[in-house]
Structures are given as structure tokens and as C-alpha cells.
Prior knowledge:
The chain has nine helices and twelve strands. By secondary structure, the chain is of the alpha/beta class. The mean pLDDT is 94.
Amino acid sequence: MKVKTILVSQPEPKMENSPYSRLIDKERVKVDFRPFIHVEGVDAKEVRQQKIDLKNYTAIILTSRNAVDHYFRIAEEMRFKVPDSMKYFCQSEAVAYYLQKYVVYRKRKIYVGKMNFADLATLFKKYKDEKFLLPSSDVLKSIVPETLNKIGIDWTRGIFYKTVISDLSDLRNVYYDILVFFSPSGIESLLKNFPNFEQNDTRIAVFGNSTVKAATDAGLRIDIQAPTPETPSMTMALQKYINTANKK
Length: 248
């Protein structure tokens, strides 16, 4: 069956010439964006109940832009002035670059991993004497605590924000040829919003092993998967599938 419409379960990219824009232009398909999940910050009182005092930490581990935003939000709510000596360990360059929203980048001690959290391991080993704070959501990939515990550093997790399922009731009678998911939470949102969901001819595209498992466990048929050696990005996987489907 040909592909004409795609729903991506994430916010629309802010960049003008995104890979999705190129996909739309090249394949002449309609792509809509709708976050199936969103984050909500917890307040300073709830953070204090976790027995977290920001002044006790000398280094911050940042795994996402959300972590950056909510760390500085809590710091402001607690009236804590983040010292210039604070060290920032960022999972990726994108997260490190985002720090510029809050700090003067050149004047701070910022350490950057390549992409995966495990890539930070060598950096953590060099700074074993620091006291690390990990601002996170209530959902945390297992590789994070596993990596930190294996290294044996002094670290504390703080839940600064929570992952919440979005209300998708307005999509109840809307049909898309392909639904695109990037996390198990997205799959959970689909099933919570539409408990009687029947896949039928809808193609499911998933990114990452954990999302594959969640979709499979939910009894969904996976038609498109990324990353693979041939299609390392979701847009490449979509384009490959569309090229085949729309030629029939």
C-alpha cells in the first residue's frame, strides 16, 4: 500500500531544512508532528523531599535539554546561585551547546561525550572525587545507573521532571499510513489513548531497541525500523520504505 500520510510522535523540528522537510519535498508525502508524551517539572518542594541540596554537588550530569532546563529552573526556585566552578558532563554536543542558554560557555568547565551515555565513562573516571548530581525524569534508561555504579563515583539522582502521556483524543478518528515512535513511552501513550487500537493497514516505524521491544510486547507489527547499518536515521528508513511502497 502506498504511503501518503505520516504522523511523527515528536514535536516538529525547529530547523527550517530538517530531514523531514526534505522527505516531504522529495516523496510528496504529508508529515504531521504530535508529541505523544511531554514533560512536566516537579516543584522545589518535591526535590527537597528527595533530600537534595544543590550546594552539596560539584558536578552535574546532563543527558538531555530537558535536564538542562529543569536543573536551572530548580536552582532558581531554590534561589541557588550556580557557582562558576561547577562542572558539567554532557551526554552530547547538542546538550552542551544548549547550556549556552544559561551559562557563558567559554568560561565553564564542560565535558562532552560523543553520543551514548557510556561514552562519558572515561571522563567520569578522571574526576572521581567530584560529587555528581543527575537531574532526570521519572523514566531513566538503565544504562545510566549501570554505568555510574560500575565506575564507582559519588552520584545522586534527582527527579526534576516527569514524563506525562499527552491527550490525543482529537486524533481518535484520524488515520495515518505510518505512525513513527522513538520511545517506549510513545507506545504506552498510543495504547493508553486508544486502548482498542487495531493496527490493520497502519505501518509502525520504531527507533531503538527499547522501542522495538515495547511495540512487540504490545502486539504491534513493526514495518520500519531504525537505526540499521543501511538506514542510521529514521528519515532514511522512512524514505527507503516509501520508495518501495509507492512504486507498486
